[in-house]
From TrEMBL, chain B:
This is Protocatechuate 3,4-dioxygenase subunit alpha. InterPro entries: Intradiol_dOase_C (IPR000627), Intradiol_dOase_core (IPR015889), Intradiol_RC_Dioxygenase (IPR050770), Protocat_dOase_a (IPR012786). Keywords: Dioxygenase, Oxidoreductase. SUPFAM superfamilies: Aromatic compound dioxygenase (SSF49482). The keyword Nucleotidyltransferase does not apply. Signal peptide: none annotated. It comes from Nitratireductor aestuarii. Residues 43-195 form the Intradiol ring-cleavage dioxygenases domain. Belongs to the intradiol ring-cleavage dioxygenase family.
Amino acid sequence: MKNSLPEVHGFFQRDRSWHPPAFAPGYRSTVVRSPQRAPISFPNTLSEVTGPVFGHALLGELDNDLTINYAKPGESAIGPRIVVYGRVLDENGRPVPNSLVEFWQANAGGRYRHKKDTYLAPLDPNFGGCGRAVTDAEGRYWFRTVQPGAYPWPNGVNDWRPAHIHFSVFGPGFVQRLITQMYFEGDPMIWKCPIVRTIPDERAIERLIAKLDMEATQPFDSRLYKFDIVLRGSNSTLFENRKEGN
Amino acid sequence: MAQELNRLKESPSQTAGPYVHIGLTPNFLGIEGVFPVDLGREMVNDETIGERIDVVVRVFDGTGTVLKDVLVEIWQADAKGLYNSPNEPRGKADPNFTGWGRMASDMENGECVFRTIKPGQVPFNDGRMQAPHISLWIVARGINLGLQTRMYFADEDAANRVDPVLTRLEHQNRVPTLIAPREGNTYKFDIHLQGEKETVFFDI
């Protein structure tokens, strides 16, 4: 035996008591879509620690401005103008650079531009609802949008989603793939939502609530909300003599 | 008290929901003009090395109904077994193969069709070779945390029999849930979320 670190550095195992369980009957769609047998674990191989990388060249100029990226020239989406900004970090607190962050949302009235959404609130002809960014060397991203509205959904007879933005995030390893949702500080609807409440730990829910940042807010333009996202960390970075990111 | 580790917790997952297409496959949905193409639709080009195959994935719920609102991503090695990733230490992968695919299921028949190539073999951590496989990540309404599984190839029986992952499964009668049969150049991989035929999912 030689005394050396393993060549494939696996990611820290997911804390499945922190994530929502697959079977969460308060959110009725999970009942027939949740695996019932225990998942199987094995050490990460190259198949798990590698993953696709997307460069900044991918991005168009308007990709991170949902107020205008679907709008007619000279027009913009209706609703409260906000900027969402933050960083993608790993569990060691290090920034994740070159992370593709994709986001989608309902319009200010709570209506999605989707053939399956039939809510009464009207579509906004100038709002598509999708955007994306790639994090910089410090893991930072930002985008401008309109604050989405709450909307009713078929679960119980009177269940409403709190205002939220969906996020899809890539890390360098395929098993870091994560989809989550961002909520807004102070929204009383958060704690009534069956999807939010699939998360067992209140502290975990709070990690998904973006904070209003009045200091950074742009006067007469947009209010800012800060939302950091944490991906799985690995021990590959623990022993490297690299500058601390945090 | 001992010192703090000061580690962060991973952001908790939330479902992709029924409107995942808006964000991840907007052109497929009909939201055009924001992004030129949907990412992950083209994995190969005319120069890609390897045997061209189609992988058709369907996902079934516990009632046996096919999901028409699922999104599947796949990740695989090139024909020589190299990943197109900065974390690949063994050499440079085929530059004409991305290795990554993303498809929303057809809203009528639930099929996700990936046009790709058959991957080469990749070593396990102890140096044994793994059978050729494709990694999958599955999200949808009603799935709270993206599901991870693998697809193996039915015509790689010899490699499958000694694969380090397949051989470590306690319930060997579940191995067939991970093996896609071949018809012509098409592999059909049916994933069952629940029931007798529940697919093996991984916590990796």
